[in-house]
Write a structure and sequence with these properties.
two-stranded antiparallel ribbon, 24% strand, binds S-adenosylmethionine
Length: 302
């Protein structure tokens, strides 16, 4: 089946290219608030966040840290709101997000990004479904926010639990999706009992990308292909359109191509175009698909 894919280089806080109720699955992973590697993106993309970081260097107040965290989630909330608009009735949104641990102003704390995202999405109107915990076997335990869990960490009570799980939050827009009886594409997309039993379970142990691939994928914090592939098969059918508003290296597009879904992806960082093209073309050459690139240069970073 020939599938169509659009890569839009631009900011997904506005998606004028997409009509209301026009996509059936959202599959994405945003930049994680308060994870250091994403600080500069938030600063470049949002003047309010840039101002707050500047303020923190001057006042070093706990309150300013909270304001930065709030502003980062406000930035993401604009995308979740727009995502809700374009998702069709019964469509599912899968949001992969991790919590952050960080020492700021000499105080170590957890920033629970998953719970803030749940609150935001429920306020927008999404219905929360049971979520998946993605356990990564890679992360090493830490002590006082640094390095591996060292000797003194064996003495209670000042160690802390390693953040070695990320969340895959699952939401539905509106009521259950409806299909005509014996819908052909739905039946063609069916899972085996074994696949169903393996996929619809709450803890997934999947190796993170760090162990497998190169520098570029680490820089975009790509999720493994296996995660995108599983979610695509669980929550969409052949011929559906999958949206990724935080496309990164286009893992979602690749999973859509390989599973005969159409897709649309937004990416604000223009530097990623080369890696997007590379990922889309790798291991997909035997499949019939068309890709259109659209560049909205006004709101691009870099
Ligand atoms: C965690 S990465 C996504 C990685 C992706 N799942 C993959 O497998 O490669 C988040 C991406 O969102 C992009 N981004 C951040 N804000 C954006 C926005 N407002 N619109 C579009 N893309 C954005 C970042 O540049 C980054 O590439």
């Amino acid at each position: 089946m020939l599938t169509q894919h659009k890569i839009i280089l631009g900011n997904s806080q506005q998606m004028p290219e997409l009509a209301d109720d026009s996509v059936q699955l959202v599959l994405t992973s945003p930049p994680y608030p308060m994870v250091k590697m994403w600080d500069s993106l938030f600063v470049q993309a949002d003047p309010e966040i840039a101002e707050l970081w500047q303020k923190l260097t001057e006042d070093c107040k706990e309150q300013t840290v909270t304001e930065i965290y709030d502003a980062m989630h406000k930035y993401l909330a604009r995308v979740w709101q727009e995502t809700y608009r374009v998702l069709s009735e019964g469509g599912i949104a899968c949001i992969n997000i991790g919590d952050a641990t960080r020492r700021l102003n000499d105080k170590f704390k957890l920033f629970p990004n998953h719970s803030r995202t749940i609150e935001t999405c429920e306020k927008i109107g999404f219905t929360m479904l049971p979520y998946i915990l993605w356990k990564k076997p890679t992360t090493k335990p830490k002590y006082k926010g640094k390095g591996a869990f060292l000797g003194s960490g064996l003495l209670p009570p000042n160690g802390y639990v390693t953040v070695d799980c990320e969340f895959i939050l699952l939401f539905r827009k509106g009521a259950l999706r409806k299909f005509p009886p014996k819908d052909k594409k739905r039946y063609e997309s069916g899972l085996t009992i074994e696949q169903r039993n393996n996929l619809f379970t709450q803890i997934w142990t999947v190796k993170g990308i760090r162990q497998k691939t190169g520098e570029l994928e680490r820089r975009t914090a790509a999720y493994p292909y296996e995660i995108a592939d599983r979610l695509t098969r669980m929550f969409s059918i052949k011929g559906d359109t999958v949206l990724d508003p935080f496309l990164g290296s286009a893992t979602t597009t690749k999973a859509a191509i390989k599973n005969e879904r159409n897709s649309i992806g937004y990416e604000i960082d223009g530097h990623l175009l080369v890696s997007i093209e590379k990922k889309i073309n790798k291991q997909t050459s035997d499949l019939p698909f068309e890709v259109e690139f659209i560049k909205r240069s006004l709101d691009l970073l870099g």
